[in-house]
Amino acid sequence: MQIFPQIDQFTWIVHIFIVVFVTTVVRFLQKRAFKKILARLAIKHNIWDEIIIYALQKPVGLLIWLLGLSFAANVAILQATNPVQLLEWLTSGRRVGIIIVASWFVLRFISRAERNLTAVDKTTASAISRLLRIAIGITTALVMMQTLGIPMSGVLALGGAGTFVVGMASKDLMANFFGALVIHVERPFVIGDWIRSPDREIEGTVEYIGWRSTRIRCFSKRPLYVPNSVFNNISIENPSRMTNRQIKDIIGVRYKDASKLPVILAAIETMLREHPQLDTNQTTFVTFSRFGASSLDCQIYCFTKTTQWVEYLRIQQDVFLKILAIVQEHGGDAAFPTRTLEITDYTNAS
Question: Does domain 242-329 correspond to CATH entry 3.30.413.10?
Fold first, then answer.
């Protein structure tokens, strides 16, 4: 493509200088303009406009340099003895550059959108962004090959054969990939959830869900990397989705306090139902459950409103201390293991 007519031996250098100078000025103005636009959008808190301008900022700068330098190269090529082939290469290179710029814009848009959507749903944003990146990478490669004149039929045939060979050689990798898809579709857990498995020694907080493995941070702060295919074959418990925490325990009252037991149990149940941090909409009771070796065993059963572990422990402590105070207020006491020893006077018996 000829931008300029035939240029004499001296003026073509001046024309290249002018093109480069204009390109530099346009790039400078574009950079200033985008900074001002981003500053205004930050004040207005318009998320999507800010994402688009941020994604455009650097690709547009690269596009300006690409077009400017390619036009300058066009001027220089026209001075060659046989510029036709060089111009074809320059045109193909310019098209490939534009494809790269467009792909870079889309990738920056996805990355910025993922960062803004993370506060809403970290797991979904991460999964969608990875899928889109893969799709964009494949599309960009195919368009670039078509632009460069590479036959697509041979590439697709080679890709199909390669996919078959790779699939046969990496069954575990494919199993992990589909395991990741199941996790993202069924969502048994998301990033930030506390999970554990009764089938394996797996317990901790989910930090990252990849295509091959999931990273879990154990309570000892050690990272645990679990292949995604494992989750298809084990049971997963997700305590993060519990609605309440359970308090279930046995309190032992002395046998000599048996006559006071009905009053003690009634007072304890009243306390449980009036406790502000217990959920009385859930099953709540206290009953005499069995005759222990050294005590009358009473079962305490209730649920806290909170699911936070530390707060739950404080509420449970408060409940237990109040139960002990109620027992003592009614003249009873907590039992402890005792043994009665009967001594026979064999001297008197003889």
Answer: no
